[in-house]
Amino acid sequence: MTVTILFASLALLLILNVPVGIALGFSAMMAIIASSTSLTLISLIQSLVTSCDSFPILAIPMFILAGDLMSAGGVSSRILNVCNVFFGRVTGGLAIVTVLVCMFFAAVSGSGPATVAAVGTMVIPTMLRQGYSKQFVLALVATAGSIGVIIPPSIPMVIFGVATGTSVTQLFMGGFIPGIMIGLTLIAYCYYHCKKRNIGGNGEKPTKKQALHAIYDAKWALINPIIILGGIYAGIFTPTEAASVAAIYAFVCGFFFHRELSIIKFLKAVATSCSTTATTMVILGCASAFTKIIMVEQIPALITNGFLSLTSNGVVLLILINILLLIVGCFMDTTPAILVLAPILMPIAKTIGLDPVHFGLIMVVNLAIGFTTPPLGINLFVASRISNSPMEVILKGIVPFLIIMIINLLIISFIPQIVMFLPNL
Q1: Using alpha carbons only, what angle is made at residue 148 by residues 145 and 150, rounded to the nearest 5 degrees?
Q2: pLDDT given at position 150
Q3: How far apart are CA 106 and CA 63, in angstroms?
Q4: Is residue 112 helix, strand or coil?
C-alpha cells in the first residue's frame, strides 16, 4: 500500500505539472502517513536538511555560479573566437565550432542548459545568417549542450557520487573519453550534413598574426580548465574545492582580466545561480526523503529480483536498464532521476558486473540524452527560448542527433574500457 501511494501520487502530481521537487516531497509525505513503518513526518523534515548537509554537495552551487560568471564575463565569446579562427573556414565550419565551444565550455561549467544558453546566444544568429537551416542549428546547439554533463566537471556526476558513494574524481576521469567521443561524432555528422548541402565555411584562412591574437586574447579562458581539472587530478584540491576555485577564477577573469563583468552583471549572475541552486536543493532534499521510503520498503531488492526473473543475461539486462533510463529521461529531470533510480539500479548493475564508475557514466549519458527528448527536454526549451522559435522547429531536426547519441550510448555501455581507461591508470 505504501509503495502504491508513493508512486501513484508522484505520477499524478507530475501529470498535473506540479514542480518535481514539490511532487517528490508531497508523495513522500503521503506515503509516510499511510505507512506502518517507523518513518514519521519528522524524518521527512530531517531529510530535507541532512541531504544538503554534505561537503560534496557544495560543488553544485559553486559550479552553477562559475558557469553563470563565465558566461557573463566573456569567457565563452573568447573561446568561440579561437575555435572560429582555426575551424571557421572548413565545410560546416561554424557548426563544428559550435560543438567545440560546447565541449570546451562543458569543461568549466558542468551544466547542459548553461552550455546551451551561453553558446546558443552567440552562434545561433550567425549560423542562420550563413545559410544553416533553423531546425539543424537549434537541434545542434541543444544536443551539443548536453555534452556539458558528460565532460567533467559535471553536476550530475557529483549527485550520482553522493547518492551511491562512488568517487566523484573517478567519475570525472571516466567522463573524459566518452565526452570527447560524442563531440567528435557530432563534428563528423556536421561535416557530412554541410557537405551534402554545400554549406561551406567562411573561406577565410587566418594569418599567423590573427591566430596568435585570438589565442592571446583568450589565454585566461583557455587556462581555466587546466587549473580546475589539473588541480583535481594532481590531488591539489577535491572536486568540491575545485568548484570554489572555478567560481573565484571566473570572477577574477571576467572582472579584472576581460573587464566585461560589471557589478550589475555580477549581481544578475549571482541571482540566477541562487535561483537554480535553490530549485536543485529542494529537489535534492525531497528526493532524499523519497529514496529513504524506497529503501525502507526494500524496493531496490524487489526490482533487482524482478529484472533477474526476466533474464539472467547481462547483455539483455544492460539493454533493459538503458531503455528504462531513456524513458525516464523523457519525463524526469536529471537530479531527481539520479537520486531516485541510482540506489535502485545499482544492485542490478553490480549483479551483472558493472563497475560503479562505468554504471555512473551510463546513467549520466542516458539522462544527457533526456535533455533533448520531449516532453521534458530542458535543452530544447532553452534553445527554443533564446531563439524565439516554436518547439516544433527543433523537433524536426533533432532525430539524427538522437540517433548519434544513442549509438554512442551503446558503445559506452558495451565497451567499458572507454570509461574505465583513465580511472584505472
Answers
A1: 125
A2: 93
A3: 11
A4: helix
